[in-house]
Specification:
The complex is a heterooctamer, with 2 copies of chain A (179 residues), 2 copies of chain B (76 residues), 2 copies of chain C (252 residues) and 2 copies of chain D (355 residues). Helices cover 39% and strands 22% of the residues of chain A. Chain A has 6 helices and 6 strands, in the order βαβββαββαααα. By secondary structure, chain B is mainly β. Chain B has a two-stranded antiparallel sheet with strand order 1-4. Chain C is α/β, with parallel strands linked by helices and 252 residues long. Chain C has one domain (27-249): 3-Layer(aba) Sandwich (Rossmann fold). Chain C has helices spanning 27-40, 75-83, 97-103, 105-113, 154-157, 163-168, 184-202, 217-220, 224-238, and strands at residues 2-8, 47-51, 66-69, 90-96, 119-124, 173-180, 207-213, 242-246. The chains are: A alpha/beta (179), B mainly beta (76), C alpha/beta (252), D alpha/beta (355). The interface between D and E is large, with 68 and 68 residues. Strand 9 (208-209) of chain E pairs parallel with strand 3 of chain F, so a sheet runs across the interface. The structure holds thiamine diphosphate (2 copies), iron/sulfur cluster (6 copies) and magnesium ion (MG) (2 copies). One thiamine diphosphate (TPP) sits between chains C (53-56, 72, 96-99, 123, 125, 127-131, 136) and E (27-29, 56, 80-81, 84).
Chain lengths: 179, 76, 252, 355, 355, 252, 179, 76
C-alpha cells in the first residue's frame, strides 16, 4: 500500500514544481490517488517555492502536508523551513551543491546529492531537478524510472523530444548517487 | 591607468547581464564562480584598468548595483 | 594622483529595499529616473507617489517619498483625490499598460480631461507582467502571450491602443511624450522628459503623461538584452518615440 | 439657533460641511442628487474640494486618495452606485482609512427603481467587497438625527480609521424637516493623523498607505488587527433606542424611516389598548445586540419591519436566540408601508391570527 | 474514461466546456489565471467565444449580454475582482439571467494577498450588490467535485434563471488531482429560452431583458417573484454532506478546502478515540440549514472552521438556535490551517480547555 | 382627382408606447431615425438594441426589436457579450453623453479597439438629462448645470471631451461620424450616416459610432425650438459635424 | 393645537411641490413641527406627482400620511388616488378647471375652485396653485395669508420680487372662491 | 387646392411646438382650446389648404405624431 507524502522545495526556476507534477502524473497513470499543490513565497519574483505531493491508494484528504514522509531540499531556506516538519525516520534528500555544512536532525535519514555538478557534467544545469528525482525514486521506490520517463515522453514532444535522453541520464545519475 | 572605476553592490545584483552589453570597453562579465545571498550570479570586472568611467553600465542597471567614479587629473 | 568624482550612484530617491522585479527588467531603470528627477528638482519631500497594480504594485517600498497603493487602474482617481486636497504636493502615478490602458483607461482620460495637475508615469511593456504574461491592450498584433497563444489576432482581439497618441487628443492634457530606456542616450532623453513633466506640475501647468517603452524579459521569454533589442525592433516602430503634446511649447 | 427647513439631501450636505469636510467626490444618481449639487456650489465657496467624478468607481478611489492624505472626505450615492464602490470600500477598510459614505437607498436589485427602500441592508452590513471587513453603519430616522450623526461620523471614521456608512432611504433624502445645525454632538478623542501620506515628509519618515500584504503572516496579523477594531465597535459602540418598552407585549424592530412609521403605528395600537415597543437600531453595523438583553419579560413577540424582504431578520434572530418568535413585515420596490399596515400586522400577531 | 491529472483552474475551465459553454468573458487576476488562459486557447478551437475584457466590470457586463441572448456564459475572477462585479451581478439577478461565476478566493480586504482564502463568504452569500437577491453558491472541496458541480451549474443557472457562483479558494484553483470528466451529473428539466433577446424575432413578439421597474408596484411584484425562487432554493436545493456523524461528540462545520483538511483532522482524532463529525455545506447559499436538524443527540459542541474570521458562524448559530455551543477556529490572510491545528482545537473543546 | 401617397408616418420600428421624453426633446427624433434605418435596411427582425442608463433607459419599450437594458456606461460591453455569441444579429447601443463619455468611456474605447462589429448611437446633449441636469463631460465651458451653477469652470472642471475625435483615433474603429438633427436637411444626413453604420455592421466591416448633437430643453431651461437653436449656435461650433473616420472610404 | 395632515396632488408642472413647501416653511418660521415629502409617479417625465405635508405641535412621526385631513386635488388621476384616503369629514379641495363632473364621497367636505381660470384672469396661469393655496388657508386657517406671503417674500428676491404681487392676489382670489 | 395633408395623432402630441417652426407655409399652431388625454395642448393646422405635403413637420416631430400624405395628380 502506497501512502507517500513529499514536499519539494527550492528557488523558483529550479524546477521543483515539475518534479512534483511528474510524480502526480505517474500516479494518475497507474490510477493511484494523488494531489499536488504549489506554494509560492511572498516575493513576487524570485524567492522560494515548494510543492506538496501526496500519492496514496486511499482517498487524499488534506492537501496540506503537515508531516511529510520525504522532503527534497533544493536550497538553504527550504531546509530551515521543512526539516522540522519531516516525520521521524523520514527521508531528507538534499541538493548538496547549494546546501552545504548544515545541521541535521538525528532522527531522520539524510541523503546528499551533488545535483548541480552532476547535471553540469551531464551537460545541462537545468536537469539538476531530475537528478534529485532519480535519487528520490531510488530511495522511495514509489515509481520506477521508466514510469517517470514514460510521462516525460508524453510531455516532451516535437522539438523537446531530444531532451528525453539527458533526463534519462539524470534520473540514472541520481539513483547512482544514493545507492 | 584607469580613468574610472566601478563599485559593485554584489548583493543587489541579479546577474541579469544587461550592463555588460553597454560597456564600451567590454570589461564586464558575470562571476560564474559564486552566487550572492539571494542566489544570483553577480557582476564583476575582468579588466579594471580599462574602465573609462563612462557610467553606461550603471545607467542601464535596473537595480542600482553599480557606483561609478571618475578619476580627475589634478590641475597641477 | 587624481581626484575622484562620483559619476553615478544609487539615488536617494530610492529606499534600500531590493526591487522585486525580475533580473534585467527595465521597470528598475524607470524607477531610477523617477527617483533621480525628484531629487534633482528637490521635490522629493513633498512628493506622494501612487503605486498601481502590476509588477510595480510593491513600489511603495522602493521610493523614499510618501506613497499610496491604488486599486487596479484607479491611480489617476486616487491622485486626483489627493491633489485636490494637497495642492502643493507633487503627485505621480506609476502604472503599467494593463493598469492604465485596460482597466484604468477611463480614470486616465478623465484625469487628463479635468487637467489634473499630476504626472502619470506609464510603463508600456506590451504585456501583463505581474499576472504571468497575458495580453495587454498594447500587445502587438501577432505577439504571443498566455491569452493569445497563437499570437494576438486583430480579428478577434483587436488592434493595440496607442496611449500617447490617444491622450494627446484630450483637450485637458498639457504634456505627453513617449520615451524609451533601451540605451544610455535614450535614458537621458527619458529623464529629461520626466523632469519636464515634474516641472510642469510644480509650476501648476497641468496634466502630464510620460509613456515608457519597457521590457518584460520573463514573459516575453527572452534574455534582458534580447528583450531590450526586441523592444527596439518591434515596439518602437509601432509606438514611435517623441513629444505628442506640449501645450507649454504650443505642440498640440 | 433657529431651525432651518431643508431637504434631506441638502441638510446632509450642510452637516458634512459643518463637520469640516475637506473634499467631496461623487457621481450623480437619483435620489441623492441634491447632495452633490448643493456641495458643488458650497464647497468652492469654502475653499474646499468638489469633484464630479467620471463614475462611482472613480469617486470612491478619489475618496481613498484624499483619506490617505489625511483629509476629511465624503462621497454619496444610491444603491447600484454603492455596488460599484465595493472594491473601493474594501480598499479603504483594508488600508485603514477614515471616510464617510452616504447611501440614499432605492429599490433593487439591478437598476431597480428610484423610490425609497432599505434593500441594501446586506450590502451595507455584510460588506459587498472581498475580505473580512465591516463599515460602521448609521441609520438615522429623521433629518435632525441624520445631521447630528453625519457631524459625528467624521470623528467616528477618524477614531477607528475605518469607513463610516450613513444609510438612509430615498424618503429621508427627499423630505424636508426643520433642522438645528448647531446642536452639540459628541466629540471623539482623536489623535493627529501622523500616518497620512500627505507629501509633507520633511520632518518624519515616509508614510505608506496600503492594503497589500503578500506575506500571509503579515496579512493574518493585519486581519487580526482589523478584527480588534470591529470587536471594539461591537463591544462599545452599538447604538439603539428602546421606545415604549415598559409592559410592551410585542416589540417592533425597525430602523430609519420604518422605525419612524412604526412610531405612529404604536400610537394607533395604544388607542386599541395594545402596548407595543420599538427597538430602533441606530447602528446597523455593529448590530445592537445588547438591546435584546433588555427586552422585558412582558414581551411575547418580535416583529421586524423593513422596506425589504427581511434582510435584518437574521440579525434579530441571532440575538433573540429562539427565546421569542420573530415575525416579519416588509414592503419592497419603493413602496413605503403605512402605519396602519404595521399596526394591523401587530394586531394579527397579538391576536394570534398571523400566519 | 481514464482520469486526467489537471490543475484546478484548468479542470474547471474544461468542465465548463463540457457543459456547453458558449462564451467566456474574463479579466486576469491571480490565482485563477490558468482558467482564462486555458479557455483562450480552447474556446476558439470549439468555435466558441473568448474575450479578455478590459476589466472585471466589462467582463460581467459581457456575461450579462450573452446571458440575455440565451447563451451559456461564464466568467471567473478572484476576490477584489468579484467586488468589482457586484453591480453586474445584481443586474444579472435582477434581470433573471442564468450565468456561472467562478470565484477563486484570495486573502483580503482590499488588494490583500494572493494566497488561498475563504474570506468572501459574506460577499458571496449575502450579495455585495444592492437589493434583495442571492446567488446560488456552490463550494466544492475537490477537483472532481468542482468539475461535477460546474458541469451541473449551467443547468442550475438555466433552471432558476439566476447566477450561480462557484466558490473555491486559491488552493483548489492551483492544485492538481486526477479527474474523471465523463462522470454523469444530474440533468435538470429545462425549458427552451423563449425569453431570450437573441435577435431572432421573426416568429415571435419582441423580447426584453431588463431589471428596471419604475412603478413600485411592479418592482414589488418582481421582488416577490424573485423571493419565490430563493425560497425554492432554500426549501428544495440545499446541498451538504454529513460525515462520520454516528456517535459524534462534536461536529465540525466547514466547506471547501477546510472541510477537506477537517477530514484529515477527524482521522487524527479517531486515533485518539475522539469521534468527530463534519457537516460540509456544498451550497453555501442556500445555507444547508436542514443538516442541523439531523445532528444526533451525541453531539455536544459545534466547531466552525474557515479560512476567514468566522463569516459562516452566524449562519451556523442561526440554525443551531442556541441548542449547542458554537465555537470557531480560523486562519486568515492566505494561511491554510493544518489538520493538527484543527484536531488540537477539537481536543481543547472536548477537553473543556477551549476559551 | 388625385392619388394619395404617404410621405411620412410613424415607423414600424417603433412600438406603440408613448415616448417618455420631455416635450420637444430630440431624443425622439433620433429614435425615429434608428427605427427607420433598421426597417429600411430590413434588419429589424434580427436586431438587438441595448438601452443604457439615461433618459433613454426606458427605450427598450419604444423600439419594436429585441432589447436589453444595460448598466450605466456598460452598453458596449453588453453589446460585445451578445455579438460574440450572435454574430448575425445587428446590435446597437443607444447611449447618452453621461453614459458613454463619463462612466462608460472605457467600455466604448475598448469595444472600438477590439473592432467589435456593433453600432453605437451616441446622443450628446451636453448634460445629464435623466438625473436632473448635472454637468456632463461634454458640457461646454461656461455652461450652467446643477453641478456647475456658475458655469463649467475649465480650471477645476476641465475641458469637454470630443468623443468623435477621440474615437476616430482608436485603430480598431471603422466608421465615426458626428451628425445633428436640428433641421430636416440634417435629419436626412443623420439618417444616411446611421444607415451607413448599420450597413457596415451588416457587412461585417466593424465598429461604428454615430454621434448625435441633441437637445435637453428642460435642463437647459429653454423651449424646444430655443434648445435646437442653442445647439446650432453653441454645440455645433464646438463639436463640428462630419465624418471623423471611415475606413471603408480611406478616411482616417 | 395644530395637527394638520395635507396631501397635495397634480400634474408635474402645476406647482404642487411648492405649495406644500410653503406650508412647511411657514410652520418652521413659527417653530411648529413640520415634515414635507414628495412622491413622483413612475413616469420619468410628465405624469402626476404629490407631496405630503404634516404640520403639528407634536413631534412628527410617520412621514407617510395614511389619512389626510385635507387633500388638494389639481388633476383627475389625483382625485381617484386620494379621495378614498381622506378622513371622514375631511376637506377635499378641487381644481374644478381640470376636474369636472366627478363623483364624491358624501362623508367629506368638497370645495371646488376654478383655479386655472381665476389664475388666467389674474394674468398668469402659473399661479393657479396659489389660488388653491389661498382657498386652503381660508378653509383650514393653519396660517394667515400674510404668513405665507412673508415666506414668498424671502424666496422671491431680485428679479422675482415682482411676482409677489400677483401671488398675493391669487391667495386672495382663492380665499374669496371658498368663502 | 392642397398638395398634401397631415394627420395628427392628437393623443401622442406633447404640444412641444417644434414642428411649427419648420412648416414652410406656416399653417401649424397649438390648439389652446383643448388638452389631450395626457394633459398636453396638441397641434392643429389652421389652413389645411396651404399644406404642400413637404413632411418637414413630421420629420422634426420627436413623437411621431404626424402622418403626411401627398396628393399626386393622376396622369390622365
Ligand atoms: C481588480 C483587479 N483586477 C485584476 C487584478 C490582477 N492583476 C494584477 S497585476 C495585473 C496586470 C498588470 O499588468 P500591467 O499593468 O501591464 O503591469 P506589469 O505587471 O506589466 O508591469 C492584473 C490584471 C487585480 N489585482 N485587481
Ligand atoms: C451606476 C449608476 N450610476 C449613476 C446612475 C444615475 N444616472 C442615471 S442616468 C444618468 C446620467 C444620464 O446622462 P446621459 O447619459 O447624458 O443621458 P441623458 O439623460 O442626458 O439622455 C445617471 C448618472 C445610475 N443609474 N447608475
Ligand atoms: S563605467 Fe563605462 S567603462 Fe567602466 S565598466 Fe562601466 S560601462 Fe564599462
Ligand atoms: S549590475 Fe545590474 S545590470 Fe549588471 S548584472 Fe547586476 S543587476 Fe544586471
Ligand atoms: S514579470 Fe516582466 S514586467 Fe514584471 S518584473 Fe518580471 S520582467 Fe519585469
Ligand atoms: S430631461 Fe432633457 S434629455 Fe431627458 S427627456 Fe427631458 S429634455 Fe430630453
Ligand atoms: S407637411 Fe409641410 S406644409 Fe404640410 S403642415 Fe407639414 S410642414 Fe407644413
Ligand atoms: S406634433 Fe410633434 S412636434 Fe408638433 S407639437 Fe406635437 S409633439 Fe411637438
Ligand atoms: Mg505591462
Ligand atoms: Mg446627456
Amino acid at each position: 500500500m502506497i501512502n507517500e507524502k513529499t514536499i519539494i522545495a527550492g528557488f523558483g526556476g529550479q524546477g521543483v514544481m515539475l518534479m512534483g507534477q511528474l510524480l502526480s502524473f505517474a500516479a494518475t497513470e497507474k490510477d493511484i490517488n494523488t494531489l499536488w499543490f504549489p506554494s509560492y513565497g511572498p516575493e513576487t519574483r524570485g524567492g522560494t517555492a515548494n510543492c506538496s505531493v501526496t500519492i496514496s491508494d486511499e482517498h487524499v484528504n488534506s492537501p496540506v502536508i503537515s508531516t511529510p514522509d520525504t522532503i527534497i531540499i533544493m536550497n538553504k531556506p527550504s531546509l530551515a523551513k521543512f526539516q522540522p516538519k519531516l516525520k521521524v525516520n523520514g527521508i531528507c534528500l538534499v541538493n548538496s551543491s547549494l546546501v552545504k555544512d548544515e545541521e541535521y536532525r538525528d532522527d531522520i535519514r539524510v541523503y546528499e546529492v551533488d545535483a548541480n555538478n552532476i547535471a553540469k557534467e551531464l551537460g545541462n544545469l537545468k536537469v539538476a531537478n531530475m537528478v534529485m528525482l532519480g535519487a528520490y525514486l531510488a530511495l522511495t521506490k514509489v515509481f520506477t524510472e521508466d514510469e517517470v520517463l514514460g510521462i516525460l515522453k508524453k510531455k516532451f514532444t516535437g522539438s523537446k523530444a531530444k531532451l528525453i535522453e539527458i533526463n534519462k541520464y539524470a534520473l540514472e545519475a541520481g539513483r547512482k548517487a544514493v545507492l | 591607468m584607469a580613468k574610472g572605476r566601478i563599485i559593485i553592490d554584489i548583493d543587489r545584483c541579479k546577474g541579469c547581464a544587461l550592463c555588460i552589453s553597454y560597456c564600451p570597453v567590454n570589461i564586464l562579465e558575470l562571476d560564474l564562480t559564486t552566487t550572492n545571498e539571494r542566489g544570483y550570479t553577480p557582476l564583476m570586472t575582468n579588466d579594471k584598468e580599462k574602465c573609462i568611467g563612462c557610467g553606461f553600465c550603471a545607467i542601464m542597471c535596473p537595480d542600482s548595483v553599480i557606483t561609478v567614479e571618475k578619476f580627475i587629473k589634478e590641475a597641477k | 594622483m587624481s581626484n575622484v568624482k562620483t559619476v553615478y550612484k544609487k539615488s536617494e530617491g530610492l529606499s534600500d529595499f531590493h526591487l522585486s522585479y525580475c533580473p534585467g527588467c527595465t521597470h528598475g531603470v524607470i524607477h531610477k529616473l523617477v527617483a533621480e528627477s525628484l531629487v534633482e528638482l528637490d521635490l522629493l519631500d513633498r512628493t506622494i507617489g501612487i503605486s498601481s497594480v502590476g509588477c510595480s504594485a510593491l513600489n511603495y517600498d522602493f521610493f523614499s517619498c510618501d506613497m499610496q497603493q491604488a486599486a487596479h487602474g484607479r491611480a489617476p482617481a486616487v491622485a486626483t483625490g489627493i491633489k485636490r486636497v494637497k495642492k502643493d504636493a507633487i503627485i505621480f502615478t506609476y502604472q503599467g499598460d494593463g493598469d492604465l490602458a485596460s482597466i484604468g483607461i477611463a480614470e486616465a482620460i478623465h484625469a487628463a480631461a479635468r487637467g489634473e495637475n499630476i504626472t502619470i508615469v506609464f510603463v508600456n511593456n506590451a504585456i501583463y507582467g505581474m499576472t504571468g504574461g497575458q495580453m495587454a491592450p498594447t500587445t502587438l498584433p501577432g505577439q504571443i502571450t498566455t491569452t493569445s497563444q497563437n499570437g494576438r489576432d486583430p480579428e478577434t482581439q483587436g488592434l493595440p491602443l496607442k496611449i500617447s497618441e490617444l491622450m494627446a487628443t484630450i483637450p485637458g492634457a498639457t504634456y505627453v511624450e513617449r520615451v524609451s530606456v533601451h540605451d544610455p542616450k535614450h535614458v537621458f532623453k527619458a529623464k529629461k522628459a520626466l523632469k519636464k513633466a515634474f516641472e510642469i506640475q510644480r509650476d501648476k501647468k497641468g496634466f502630464s503623461l510620460i509613456e515608457f517603452i519597457s521590457t518584460c524579459p520573463v514573459n516575453w521569454g527572452m534574455t534582458p538584452k534580447g528583450a531590450v533589442d526586441w523592444a527596439v525592433d518591434n515596439l518602437i516602430p509601432y509606438y514611435p518615440l517623441g513629444v505628442y503634446k506640449d501645450k507649454t511649447e504650443g505642440i498640440e | 439657533m433657529a431651525k432651518v427647513l431643508m431637504k434631506g439631501n441638502e441638510a446632509m450636505a450642510l452637516a458634512a460641511i459643518k463637520a469640516g469636510l475637506d473634499a467631496f467626490y461623487g457621481y450623480p444618481i437619483t435620489p441623492q442628487n441634491e447632495l452633490p449639487e448643493y456641495l458643488s456650489k458650497q464647497m468652492p465657496l469654502h475653499g474646499r474640494a468638489f469633484v464630479q467624478a467620471e463614475s462611482e468607481v472613480a469617486a470612491i478611489n478619489m475618496v481613498y486618495g484624499a483619506a490617505g492624505a489625511g483629509a476629511r472626505v465624503m462621497t454619496s450615492s444610491s444603491s447600484p452606485g454603492i455596488a460599484l464602490k465595493q472594491e473601493g470600500l474594501t480598499y479603504i477598510a483594508g488600508a485603514e482609512l477614515p471616510a464617510v459614505i452616504i447611501n440614499v437607498m432605492r429599490g433593487g436589485p439591478g437598476l431597480g427603481g428610484i423610490q425609497p427602500s432599505q434593500a441594501d441592508y446586506k450590502q451595507i452590513t455584510r460588506g459587498g467587497g472581498n475580505g473580512d471587513y465591516y463599515l460602521y453603519s448609521l441609520a438615522p430616522e429623521s433629518l435632525q438625527e441624520a445631521v447630528d450623526l453625519i457631524k459625528e461620523s467624521f470623528d467616528i471614521a477618524d477614531y477607528f480609521r475605518n469607513p463610516v456608512m450613513i444609510a438612509v432611504d430615498g424618503l429621508i433624502g427627499q423630505m424636508m424637516e426643520p433642522v438645528d445645525f448647531e446642536r452639540e454632538v459628541p466629540k471623539w478623542d482623536l489623535k493627529p493623523k501622523t500616518w497620512a501620506a500627505d507629501g509633507n515628509r520633511k520632518n518624519r519618515k515616509k508614510n505608506i498607505i496600503n492594503s497589500l500584504y503578500l506575506d500571509p503572516n503579515d496579512l493574518e496579523n493585519h486581519n487580526l488587527k482589523l478584527k480588534a477594531k470591529y470587536d471594539e465597535m461591537r463591544d462599545k459602540h452599538q447604538r439603539y433606542e428602546m421606545i415604549n418598552m415598559e409592559n410592551a407585549e410585542i416589540v417592533i424592530v425597525a430602523f430609519g424611516s420604518t422605525s419612524r412609521i412604526s412610531r405612529t403605528a404604536i400610537e394607533l395600537l395604544k388607542e386599541e389598548g395594545i402596548n407595543c415597543g420599538i427597538i430602533r437600531p441606530i447602528t446597523i453595523y455593529p448590530f445592537p445586540q445588547n438591546a435584546f438583553n433588555e427586552i422585558p419579560e412582558s414581551v411575547k413577540n418580535i416583529l421586524v419591519v423593513e422596506m425589504n424582504l427581511g434582510q435584518m431578520v437574521d440579525d434579530v434572530k441571532l440575538h433573540v436566540q429562539g427565546r421569542l418568535p420573530v415575525h416579519f413585515y416588509g414592503r419592497v420596490g419603493g413602496i413605503v408601508p403605512e402605519a396602519e399596515e404595521i399596526s394591523d400586522q401587530v394586531k394579527k400577531i397579538v391576536g394570534g391570527t398571523y400566519e
